[in-house]
């Protein structure tokens, strides 16, 4: 990016993961969250994670300190006025995203890019609330963002070619690989492939065909996936997974994306997976 200053809006799991990677690659990151204390907590988590790498001899302490210095908590929208790129990672609720994009459009410089980390929502619809729909695109990172190599770059209907190129250059500068999703389509590439895998694993569990442990073991060892689908669903967050499935189902009207009851029941009970300590598995 032009001035090495970016904004990350939303400091939950994805927001702080993205902030960490950008800061480790030399960007100053202005971090904003609607809820008080969330940014400070996120910076604490990043500090702890980097401390583990220092203890393991993988990172010099000086680099840890420098990375943390580049993470700047901000509280007002106007504090984001110097950023040349904003990456939004707030709740997957269209109305919330639209409010955020209106504010970003108001405060960021005219040539700045506005990106959303949405995992499935329409880029075009989000872009429409701004005066610069050509400069809005999806930059979809994967969990855990500091580790996962891919960023899906998603074009909205109006996204300009040079904007996709600038986003690609930025993603490469923070050590990521990119793919371009040429059409704004629900679930893009990865979630469109992943959700039917999650759903089938959950149905196998629901039908009593195998235990959660054996379903995961089968996929891990039989397909060489790093994690089984139920463990991965717990990691990505069952609330997020259900939201993505319901959105894909509404958009495509296709049973491939119909969420299983076992998932809906867990989400209704507040069991969102790893982040709440319980999902298909229990975590201490
Ligand atoms: N945050 C930051 N770093 C993490 C991390 C986290 N949550 N979890 C693990 N790591 C780091 C570790 O520190 C370690 O780093 P090091 O090599 O420098 O020491 C490295 O990752 C490997 O970790 P571990 O040795 O503890 O464990 P594994 O080798 O089992 O790797 C994993 C963990 C990287 C999470 C691996 O199991 C994996 O790749 N799982 C699949 C993840 C995946 O598919 N994610 C995509 C989800 S889909 C999505 O996000 C889309 C959304 O829209 C739904």
TrEMBL record:
Domain 3-hydroxyacyl-CoA dehydrogenase NAD binding: 6-184
Protein name: 3-hydroxybutyryl-CoA dehydrogenase
Lineage, broadest ranks: Bacteria, Bacillati, Bacillota, Clostridia, Eubacteriales
Site (Important for catalytic activity): 140
GO terms of molecular function: 3-hydroxybutyryl-CoA dehydrogenase activity; NAD+ binding
Taxonomic superkingdom: Bacteria
Involved pathway(s): Lipid metabolism; butanoate metabolism
GO BP terms in the entry: butyrate metabolic process; fatty acid beta-oxidation
Family: Belongs to the 3-hydroxyacyl-CoA dehydrogenase family.
UniProt: NAD(+) binding residues: 10-15, 33, 92, 97, 119, 143, 275
The entry's keywords: NAD, Oxidoreductase
All copies of domain 3-hydroxyacyl-CoA dehydrogenase C-terminal, residue ranges: 187-283
């Amino acid at each position: 990016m032009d001035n090495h200053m970016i904004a990350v809006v939303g400091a939950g799991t994805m927001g702080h993961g993205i902030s960490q990677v950008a800061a480790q690659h030399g960007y100053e990151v202005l971090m904003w969250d609607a809820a008080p204390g969330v940014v400070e907590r996120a910076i604490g988590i990043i500090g702890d994670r980097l401390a583990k790498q220092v203890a393991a001899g993988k990172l010099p302490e000086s680099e840890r300190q420098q990375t943390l210095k580049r993470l700047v908590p901000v509280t007002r929208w106007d504090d984001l006025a110097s950023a040349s790129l904003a990456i939004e990672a707030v709740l997957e609720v269209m109305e919330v995203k639209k409010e955020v994009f209106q504010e970003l459009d108001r405060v960021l410089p005219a040539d700045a890019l506005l990106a959303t980390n949405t995992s499935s929502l329409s880029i075009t619809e989000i872009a429409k609330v701004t005066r610069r729909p050509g400069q809005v695109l999806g930059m979809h990172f994967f969990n855990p963002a500091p580790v996962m190599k891919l960023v899906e770059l998603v074009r909205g209907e109006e996204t300009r070619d040079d904007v996709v190129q600038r986003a690609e250059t930025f993603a490469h500068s923070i050590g990521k690989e990119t793919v371009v999703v040429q059409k704004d389509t629900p679930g893009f590439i990865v979630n469109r492939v992943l959700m039917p895998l999650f759903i089938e694993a959950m149905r196998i569990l629901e039908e009593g065909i195998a235990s959660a442990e054996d379903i995961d073991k089968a996929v891990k060892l039989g397909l060489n996936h790093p994690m089984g689908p139920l463990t991965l669903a717990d990691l990505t967050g069952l609330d997020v997974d259900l939201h993505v499935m319901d959105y894909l189902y509404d958009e495509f009207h296709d049973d491939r994306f119909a969420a299983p009851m076992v998932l809906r029941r867990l989400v209704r009970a507040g069991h969102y997976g790893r982040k709440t300590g319980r999902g298909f598995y229990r975590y201490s």
